[in-house]
Amino acid sequence: MATETDPLIAENGESKEVKDYVPNAKPIRRVHFDGSSHISVIFQIYGSVWPKVLPYCLFNVLLSYAIHIVKLEYGIDLSIEGNNASFMSILVSFLVVTRAKIAYARFMEARGNLQTMYRVVREIIQHVCILTQHSKSEGAKAWRRDVAYQTIALLRVTMATLEYKSSKKSSWNFFTRGKKRMRKQMLKSVNYSGTSVRNRMMNWAHTDLSLTDENENFRAPILLAYALRAELLSQRSGERIKTRRVDTKTPVHPNEEKYLLAYVDAFVTSYHNLKKLASTPFPFPLVQMGRTFLFVYTYTLPFALAHSMHHPLGAMLMIFFITYGYLGLEYVAMELDDPFGDDPNDFDDLGLARVVFEDIYMNIYKVDGKESLHILRHQVAERLEKSGALEDLRSSICKDMMHTSLDVLSAS
User: Can you give the pTM of this predicted structure?
Assistant: First the structure.
């Protein structure tokens, strides 16, 4: 979506278009169906496994027909006893159903952690607005906007990180079109005595093996979580929120700060749970064993049915639906393995995140008014795109690394 309309920041009651911070984003058509209509459910193609399974079904039907034709026309009997196939069907059923059950459990666990992230992001902004609504100074408004901005950046970069396996778009430079990767910028040379920051970081590393791009992407939300925690506690200086509490002489009570940080902890916990699911694939030996038995059983079944079913039409119908059932369950499990991406059955994580962003805007609008919301919207639309969500962190990290290098050299 290139543009979107927000009546909350409109002037004179008219809507005003604001540039979205996700340029050239295309809406993804998710699966919708009417569960009360059996006909529409059975014959709906979009989002089903029919397009993937149908070629296997047709091939197996042709194989069954060929076996019967060879037997009837040429007298060559290729059929086999069906007892062995019945025993194998039990094993194949167990493996296929177990895989589908485990994949569905992982799917629902991922959805639960995703929902927790959406919930705690809303809670952070609501509590920030409620706990500091007594202060209407420009500094307090700016602090609330900065917290909202860091929260939006954290959630958006997290969504990009989770979708990396499908999109192959690095979360380090997701908001920096036309620039080099943010990770390379963070590690670019800051020369001192002819030694680069990259070399210094390699000297501090615990291994000579370089991390994969996927592991590098998983670092981005962790850094932004640190930035959000720092932003939540930045009000302690008293420079932005002038109003102090009578009991603690601080803008926000320490217990209230504890609750805010606890929400960030809950977000990071859910993120690490999702990272665990993403970095722990389904056990390969179980997949290999199940897939081997599945194809051996499916494509030897026509030979077994040819022994017990002498009419080719009945055998072909039976083969078609058995193939659809077994291979269809396998493809369902494959769909559930990676629920983040642009497939029809994947989570609409970005769409749900945008709803959360709108809720954040509404909270800022209620507490600080239309002008503050206008500033936040443009901060999100322009700062994320032009500077990048990690730009400030990258600059501060480079400075800290250079200062650390200077301290180490002076000490030696």
Answer: 0.79
